[in-house]
Amino acid sequence: MKTISGNPRRDLTASNVYSCGDYAYKLDPYYDKLPAELRKAAYPAGICDKDDNIYLVSRNPNQIVVLDSSGNFVRTIGQGLFVSLHDIKVTAENTLICMDVLQHVAREIDMDGNLIRDFGTLNTPSDSGFDPNIWDRLRAEGLYVTYDSYYNADLDFLERVRSIKRSAPPFNRPTGVALNSKNEIYFSDGYGNASIHKFTRDGKLLKTWGEPGRGPGKFTVAHAIWIDPLDRVWVCDREGNAVHVFSGDGGILAYASGGFLQPSGIWGDASHVYIGERGGGLSIFDLDITLVAQIGFAFSSLRFHGLCGDSAGNLFVIPLNSFPGHRLMKLTRV
What we know:
With about 325 residues, the chain is mostly beta strands. The chain contains three helices and 27 strands.
């Protein structure tokens, strides 16, 4: 009898290439080289600086984890400043703006982790009608049967975002941040609100737009935001399964829906905007706002929560809890 043993680390030796038309990417599922004590943290998002160092926001503990361009651990910063990190961007002044969902603010820090300023009012949610306790009340009234904890958490989230009644000022559980060429700052305010906010660089609110719902300019969960080279504002509505494109002042320019797998993360370069989908896909638009490729499929390994890229055009998949055991994966165009 011949006895055969499979390779327990086949994911390190097999080649995984995802393609659609002229767009093909090879996946490295274990790009980060985090030390053991940081591997149990949850990583929602990240961004690359001009030198292609990678800044990951982590939870448990809440801090910024810095990797070099090869994925090697460098240092951590920002300890004690955050409660529930969600997104991060590097500014033109080489500072970091970090979104804190549960403190209802965007916190700007320097590269040593020192607090510079807050956008929004610390620990003060705006009045959008959002009810963080609605799930407990619905269960107490017998309107839901108890299932496993993961399913319950999903139902809890959906009921809470459905409780949003109106667009409100900054912030109620904000989710994302992006900057335009004029150094103006845009925020997606999506977990407890249904709004996009535009600020001056020094923190003056210029405009708020959006409303709860589905359709152009309406958000179920405004989850991620990006500004393209033409200063257009792209917003991923994750639970709405849609991508909105606005002018810098909030005029709707395009709306993409149907055939998306929960648009969750977004990043762009000089020629394309990349939409990472939590359900297992990558959608690619050119700057004519034409959808040129959709890579992956439902429940593939391309399960994005966050997305960023480097100066060479490599993309980084940050799956959070949607792909257990993976923290930072790399997509190299081939």
